[in-house]
Amino acid sequence: MMTDISQQINAFGSHSPLQLLTNPFGPAVPLQLWLKRDDLLHPLVSGNKWRKLKYNLLAAQVQGFATLLTFGGAYSNHLYATAAAGRAFGFRTVGLVRGNELASQPRNKTLSFCETAGMQLHFIDRETYRRKDDPDFLCELQTRFDPCYVIPEGGTNDLAVCGTAEILPEIRLQLGHAPSYVCCAVGTGGTLAGLVQSAPETTAVLGFLSLNVADFQLPFDVEPSGNVQLLTDYHFGGYAKTTSQLLDFIRDFEQRTGILLEQVYTGKMLYGVQDLARRGYFPKGATVVAIHTGGLQGRSGAL
Fold first, then answer.
1. 81 and 103 share a domain?
2. 3-class SS at 6?
3. Which of 50, 122, 160, 193 has its C-alpha lying 20 to 30 A from 222's C-alpha?
4. DSSP 7-41
5. Helices in 12-125 by DSSP H: which ranges?
6. What does the pLDDT look like over 79-115, one tens digit per residue?
């Protein structure tokens, strides 16, 4: 492993572009939207996954770990990003994949990439997978796979939030002032938590839930309040679910802006932003920033 990965991490730059979209949804939707292009942060460890892994990679090196171990489903952006980070920064990687039946099936693009990048995939049944946060189970894994740095499913932990908390200060520096609204997709909630941590009182944080979970719990100390809202009407049926309406929206957005989206996170969030704008949610002249959290390797073949 490299003697110091911090220099290599810094070489990729800490800031992503902030792009003004003057007509992203058509003239019927009166909104000027800024897009924080975190999809451009790293060529493979894309978007919020880069933010979440950044300080975990540094911690793993400082603590002397040569192996990263983490968890995810068959189409996990996080597994993909961890495998890519391991290859880029010299860590061995182990991925525990939900669903032991997948072991004998052909690999999809996500899992195929993980193996190509050197990740050891271990497929476990769903009952065992539910123990992923159990301290006793994690101790068993340390014995089975030798000492390893464990990153939780989705990559969300305290160090991940340190990374996502850097987004809003970057936006403020790029705009010259704090935005009125900042919008992000919500999976495990790590990006939302980071935004809330660094948001001034004048900035409303809107999180668009990408999965259909009625009892979803916001992470850490994040609670809905006057300037934090969790929007639950734009999941299109649940995690990784989609509809022709969503795909048509994404195609139209891409044609207007030239910016590629995926249908799991950012596409759903931007559909929600459009719907809110169409209904007059945002005051005239409000500065609205949406975060493109990357994950384009999960882009549907239907697009």
1. yes
2. helix
3. 50
4. HHHHHT-S---EEEESSSS-TTS---EEEEEGGGS
5. 47-62, 77-89, 109-116
6. 999 999 999 899 999 999 999 999 999 999 999 999 9
pTM: 0.90
Closest to 157 (Cα-Cα) out of 130, 191, 122 = 191
| Dihedral, 49, 100, 214, 25 alpha carbons, nearest 10 | 50
Q: Are 149 and 56 in contact (CB under 8 A)?
A: yes
Q: How many CB atoms within 10 Å of residue 90?
A: 15
Quick check: 220 pLDDT over 90? no
Which amino acid type is present at position 187? G
The burial class, CB within 10 Å (0-12 / 13-18 / 19+), for 296 is middle
Strand order in the sheet with 149-150: 120-124, 92-98, 67-72, 149-150
Each residue's pLDDT tens digit, 135-168: 999 999 999 998 999 999 989 899 999 999 999 9
pLDDT digits (tens, 9 = 90+) for 256-298: 999 999 999 999 999 999 999 999 999 998 999 999 999 888 8
| Residue 100, pLDDT score | 93
Domain match, 103 and 210 both: no
Whichever domain contains 173, its CATH number is: 3.40.50.1100
State whether 51 and 38 are in the same domain: no
Torsion of CA 286, 220, 233, 199, to 10 degrees: 0
Output the six-digit token pair for 121.
């995939």
Q: Rounded to whole angstroms, how far apart are CA atoms 158 and 96?
A: 21
Domain that holds residue 217: 5-42+164-298
Q: Within 10 A of 134 (CB to CB), how many other CB atoms are there?
A: 11
* Three-class secondary structure of residue 186 per DSSP: strand
Give residues with Cβ within 8 angstroms of 276, minimum separation 6.
206, 282
Q: Measured between alpha carbons, how far is residue 235 from residues 87, 268, 271 in Å?
A: 33, 7, 10
